[in-house]
Sequence to fold (368 residues):
Amino acid sequence: MIKQLFACIFTFALISTAAVSGPIRIKDLVEFDGVRGNDLIGYGLVVGLNGTGDGIRNAPFTEEIMSNILERLGVNITGEQFRPKNVAAVFVTANLPAFARAGGRIDVTVSAIGDAKSLLGGTLIMTPLNAADGQIYAVGQGTVIAGGVSATGDAGGVVQGVPTSGVIPSGAYIEREIDFDFGALAQIRLALRTPDFTTAERIERAINKMFGRGVAVMLDAGTVQLDIKATRQASAAHAISKIENILVEPQRKARVVVDQRSGTIVLGEDVRISRVAVSQGNLTLRIEEQPMVVQPNPFAAGESVVVPRTNASIQEEPGIGLAELSEGTSLSEVIAGLNALGVSPRDMIDILKSIKAAGALHAEFIVR
Fold:
């Protein structure tokens, strides 16, 4: 019980230190309309593996792409039978940032799609990377840094991390730019990452206060529109540079987020609990099978018989009785009241669900 209480206190201590509120820059609260990256994808080949590549019989697409590459290089292998184990077919993915220019470099991620055991030490052969419009925007090539290691023997093996996936830092050159004239925009919308009417109004007020006139207007809980001409700046980029570092104190909804898989509990700063009494206990049902073999006497005619034996028991822990949680007026008081229950974080999740069902938890309850 002491260990459980310590785990619960430790979990909530992390939450309380992370819940300190304060002003935040506008650039950390919003996304600027049109300023976004684009996903790229390609299909390529990793070579130079130490016998950990695709089994060609199980991955015929690897043989096909390898044949195409060799033929483009002037090597005719039509009708030849080859079964190399040091190549692997991979998907190559990357993100083309906003305002990326031709000649720049971006990171790429390489992931095996066949039955390769590891990409450690492999080299990605020149791979075109396409966007959703089918155009080639970058070309990737380089040495793969795998995310793990594996070793196998005749009777077993060991795997650490994910050796079938890796990255190539700055592994692709940008060949084509996104056609987007940011300077021609007359208006820019600021999209709040967490829509909230109060936060949007505060952003509008802070921007107008800095310029001394009405240049921003709140359209809804998630959008603030900025009039570039009214800012009297040289360009849209100059206007954004003026407002992105303005400090605004956001208003957040009261939320409780729980992850049942890991037992993680996160409480927002504005979570409140009304006065409520809680009782919690565990019920354990145990069934054990202990079959017994009954044998006949040495000189008697008969056969050995297996007689089933079952032991069933029900054990109920005493629980905590009825514990009163007083009305919480601050996050620290809510944490102190929940810690007073002395239960593990996983049991705390069930308690919070029940408190919410009773109408005593005044927050949005999110289960992941």
